[in-house]
Design goal:
Distance between the termini: 61 Å
Largest sheet: 7 strands, mixed
CATH superfamily of the largest domain: Formyl transferase, N-terminal domain
Number of helices: 7
CATH topology of the largest domain: Rossmann fold
Number of strands: 14
Strand content: 25-35%
Low-confidence stretches: none
CATH class of the largest domain: Alpha Beta
Structural class: alpha/beta
CATH architecture of the largest domain: 3-Layer(aba) Sandwich
Shape: elongated
Mean pLDDT: 94
Strand order of the largest sheet: 3-2-1-4-5-7-8
Number of domains: 2
Radius of gyration: 22 Å
Length: 296
């Protein structure tokens, strides 16, 4: 039976770890950054909770590049790096006898880079996927081990797509890990000519500009919904989070109004003029409706 080392940091990791432990493979060691080292991971999960259910311990750390000696002591045949954003250095990639498998919630070689779920929703893509691949020193460039495509509906938000990525990974692991145990190591080189990269997003990328179209605002809000940090607008001297919206039909008599104009407030629902129509805020963090004024 092969020796596996698991490295992860987020809710996705916890789900992957659980299914691998349920499968009964020989996970000799589990590594995870401490919570203080993951301040930018809004979906951080303590893997010790899952590990404890199987009488396993977790080795917590801050920086993976300082853990070479520990990984050597683990003597892994295969390392699973599932839900971990730090770059794995070559000094660690060279340790396992077979290799290191990482994950990317997109259909490589397309959409490499940072924040693939957020970008996919913000751009209104109708198709997504999950790729498990053999890590090398490039950014999402390694040979593909397995991948699975899924649809992204117009009603899906980040939470829904995140779950689809988890479910796709679980399906792949159930199918492919037994092959690893039997010694079947599949690798499919990526066609690098078809690759594109998504950049790291900043806080500014999450700001709603009411001059955007209603669909662009809707897509941005659903892209940053939980487990992520939420879209926001800057008004009444505050940074206000917006979690859910609905596109409304344009009203001809309102076309001449400036974007950001508040058309109606009913309870906590706010209808706002956008660059090409109307949008309704359904879930947000405005506290006192009268403070808003006429424009956002």
């Amino acid at each position: 039976m092969k020796r596996y080392l698991f490295i992860g940091a987020v809710e996705y990791s916890a789900n992957c770890l659980r299914i691998l432990l349920e499968m009964g493979i020989r996970i000799t060691d589990i590594m995870s950054p401490s919570k203080s080292a993951c301040v930018f991971n809004s979906d951080y999960a303590d893997l010790g909770i899952v590990a404890g259910e199987y009488n396993k311990n977790v080795h917590y750390f801050a920086h993976i590049d300082r853990e070479v000696d520990y990984v050597k002591k683990c003597r892994p045949d295969i390392i699973f790096v599932l839900g971990f954003s730090q770059i794995i250095p070559k000094s660690i990639l060279d340790i396992p006898t077979i290799g290191t498998i990482g994950s990317h919630p997109a259909l490589l070689p397309c959409n490499r880079g940072r924040h693939p779920i957020i970008w996919a929703l913000a751009k209104g893509l109708k198709k997504g996927g999950l790729t498990l691949f053999w890590l090398d020193q490039g950014v999402d460039t390694g040979d593909i081990w397995a991948q699975k495509e899924f649809k992204i509906s117009f009603d899906d938000d980040a939470s829904a797509v995140y779950k689809k990525a988890i479910d796709s990974t679980v399906d792949i692991l159930k199918q492919k890990v037994p092959e690893l145990e039997k010694g079947t190591i599949s690798r499919t080189p990526q066609d690098h000519s078809k690759a594109n990269y998504w950049r790291k997003r900043t806080e500014k990328d999450g700001e709603v500009d009411w001059r955007m179209s209603s669909e662009e605002i809707y897509n941005l809000v659903r892209a940053l919904a939980g487990p992520y940090v939420g879209a926001h607008c800057n008004t009444v001297g505050k940074n206000i989070k917006i979690w859910k919206t609905r596109i409304l039909q344009e009203r001809p008599e309102l076309k001449s109004l400036r974007p950001g104009k508040i058309i109606n407030i009913e309870g906590r629902r706010i209808i706002i003029k956008t660059g090409n129509g109307l949008i309704e805020l359904l879930d947000h963090e405005f506290e006192l409706m009268p403070e808003i004024g006429d424009y956002l």
